[in-house]
Design goal:
The chain is mainly alpha-helical and 149 residues long. It has a single domain, classed as Non-ribosomal Peptide Synthetase Peptidyl Carrier Protein, Chain A (Orthogonal Bundle), CATH 1.10.1200.120. The chain is built from 4 helices and 4 strands; from the N terminus they run ααβαβαββ. Strands 1-2 form a two-stranded antiparallel sheet. Helix 2 packs across helix 4. The longest helix has 39 residues. 3% of the residues are buried.
Length: 149
């Protein structure tokens, strides 16, 4: 019975629930980024490169010739889809850049918050508890502290 209780405690912790929501939101974000790459970024990039459609760039490994990837797949041809791979690389770079910007913002916010805490508290010389910088007596051990920070 201990194993079941331990698993239940693990499964209902906030971190597991937060992770589940993050996976769901991440999947939705992935679809948005995929559409951004396929429908917004790649068409102008293809146009700049002479009207290329990257999603239809492939090589058949047995030498057959097909006009589109869909035709090759319908015929059961073995293909090397380097255009789709290029789309996946661009999608990854967009996601990685977006995550970088989010993490960068969170780290800057955390640094700002840490500076604010350090500026308003100090350690009691006797019990090492955090006390307000202006305190004259520690509220935990009642030792008189100097007014120096």
């Amino acid at each position: 019975m201990g194993f079941v209780k331990e698993f239940k405690d693990f499964a209902v912790k906030g971190n597991v629930v937060d992770l589940a929501f993050a996976v769901i939101i991440g999947a939705a974000f992935g679809k948005i980024v995929d559409s951004l790459v396929k429908d917004i970024l790649m068409p102008p990039l293809g146009l700049l490169m002479g009207g290329l459609d990257f999603s239809n760039h492939f090589v058949t490994l047995k030498g057959q010739k097909f006009a589109t990837l869909a035709e090759a797949q319908a015929a059961g041809a073995v293909t090397l889809n380097y255009g789709l791979f290029l789309n996946a690389i661009v999608s990854f770079l967009v996601v990685a850049f977006a995550i970088f910007l989010i993490v960068r913002r969170l780290n800057a916010s955390a640094r700002r918050d840490a500076v604010a805490v350090v500026a308003t508290t100090r350690a009691c010389p006797e019990c090492l508890s955090d006390i307000p910088s202006e305190a004259k007596r520690c509220k935990y051990c009642a030792v008189t502290v100097s007014s120096r920070a």
